[in-house]
Write a structure and sequence with these properties.
6-stranded mixed β-sheet, single chain, 14 strands
């Protein structure tokens, strides 16, 4: 016997494995890791393109959305920037939803390349605006987790120097040390007595 595999409705919608498509292209799958593949066997790249003539700043051009049993729980939004005249700048925003909540922006890569976490528009100093974490409400912070015998480190580098300065916590000895120009300038142990 034959089974229907594809349907084009009178409205022009294409259903693959689904009899009543609700989108222009609607695909039904029944196994994990099934879906759409774009494959090139040559020395070429593939592309999924979104193109829309939006009129306002920070408007969606394209979205990649995820739904949990029909409920929108997260999405990636490819958005317009702020230049609504030339329409030549853009940004990427990531939205997530807490249990029982709505989808809120969690991370943004703005048109200047700055990464914003839990922040949408805080104007940081120009020489320290590549990564902006938090906003002006509540408590914010960063946690660096390492093994019991490892280190947690914040390194500073420049052209030709991968570690010209650092702030390092040694978990094995429970000591914090600071280096400047590659040399240790201070060390603190659990007694909080600095060693210079």
């Amino acid at each position: 016997s034959s089974n229907e595999r594809l349907r084009i409705t009178s409205a022009g919608s294409l259903g693959v494995g689904i009899a009543a498509p609700t989108k222009l292209l609607d695909i039904a799958t029944s196994t994990s890791a099934d879906g759409i593949r774009v494959k090139s066997t040559g020395n070429t790249y593939n592309e999924i393109a979104f193109d829309a003539n939006r009129t306002s700043a920070t408007n969606h051009i394209g979205r990649i959305v995820s739904k949990w049993n029909g409920t929108l729980v997260s999405y990636i939004s490819l958005d317009t920037g702020t230049d609504t005249t030339n329409k030549d700048d853009g940004q990427i925003r990531f939205f997530t939803s807490a249990s029982g909540g709505s989808n809120l922006e969690s991370l943004r890569i703005d048109s200047g390349g700055s990464v914003r976490i839990a922040n949408t528009n805080f104007s940081a100093a120009g020489n320290a605006d590549e990564l902006i974490l938090g906003d002006t409400s509540g408590n914010r912070g960063i946690t660096i987790v390492s093994g019991n015998t490892g280190i947690s480190a914040l390194f500073f580098a420049d052209d030709g120097q991968t570690n010209i300065g650092s702030l390092v916590y040694e978990h094995n000895t429970d000591q914090m040390r600071m280096t400047v120009k590659g040399n240790q300038v201070m060390r603190l142990d659990h007694t909080s007595v600095p060693t210079w």
